[in-house]
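We now fix the convention by which a protein and its fold are recorded. Here is one such record, which you should read through line by line:

>
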Amino acid sequence: MERAGLENILKTCAGVVRRGGVWFLTDPAWTADRRAEAELRFALTDSLDRGGLGWLGIPTGGTGGAVRFARHDEITLGAAVRGFQTHFGLSRVNAVDVLPAHHVSGLLARVRSAFSGGEHLPWSWKRLEGGDRPALPPRADGWVVSLVPTQLQRLLAVEGGAEWLRSFRMVFLGGGPVWPALADAAATARVPVALSYGMTETAAMVTALRPEEFLAGARHSGRALPHARLSIAADGAISIAGGSLFRGYWPAWRAGEWFTTDDAGMLAADGGLMVTGRRDAVVITGGKKVQPELVEAALRTALGGADVAVVGVPDPEWGEKLVACLPPTGGAPDPGMDFPALAPHERPKSWITVDPWPVNAQGKVNRAALREAARSYQDTRPAPPGGEPRLDITGRQ
């Protein structure tokens, strides 16, 4: 991959900002405060000569909100493209793209197509959700599309959505946890889903499940792509090495071969990666550790796929208590609803509605904003039966 070719792609991306020899991707919809925050980042200087590497800043805010720019270049993105092609056996990548360019998956859709000689078809998500779906001409390598879980859920729920998704060779799913009911619904509809794991820092996916494995019943994030290596520590921390790994957060330079993520996971029996949640999101309530994302998966299943996010807030009796947050379009469960898939300490003690719902265009929730809302909210709803966690003294150190 040549730098000039990558620059030509960037010139077509909305929101790109150049400062000297450095390119930054930004979200055109950012608020004035967020753009001012980004401008402070742009003003930082890089005084070290790194041979022209790390010249592309891709925004990443994680779930905490503060914007950072992960440094990439034609070498890191090139490694990601080659590993992707090899893993899925694609000579040319023909992609329908409903994600914005400042989102790493949207950028990589453009880059994979351009550097493999494939076709890139940008399409508005609102048009797609509204039923205006592009006709896909036959291609030897077929077509692919990248979605986040909420997008897949909505397409499965509308007339003709599943049929259109079945026309793809692969439907990549990432950007957030996939709850079991959604995965099962996609498999029942015979949608060729490829579950994946990756992030801005790794130039998108570093593990991926092939569609045939998914349709056969596998529900993990797949094995490592050829350009990546994974390591899982005793505490579950996932570390990644490989050619697509970012150079650092602008203007810093990352040291070392490995990058330790904020995610926790384990390996499935067949060697695939199972992501259990974020290490920094663990809630300890009554001496018990709870992973919010696992609780959210169970709640979504019980609530028919409704949006819900679980956070922990300080509590004088339990240390922390679980609060289930719902968007204004959602609704709390009936008072009589139970959640048999959850242990007593995993069931939320409170349910609140958060308006506005702090989520970005890709469906990723700002958990810091939710925690702040939960702390300040005067709860007026009783928790569903069984919501009180049991204090376990015998298991505490």
Observations:
- Residues 74-88 form the longest helix (15 residues).
- Residues 378-382, 384-397 have pLDDT under 50 and may be disordered.
- The longest strand covers residues 259-267.
- Residues 101 and 107 are 5 Å apart (CA to CA).
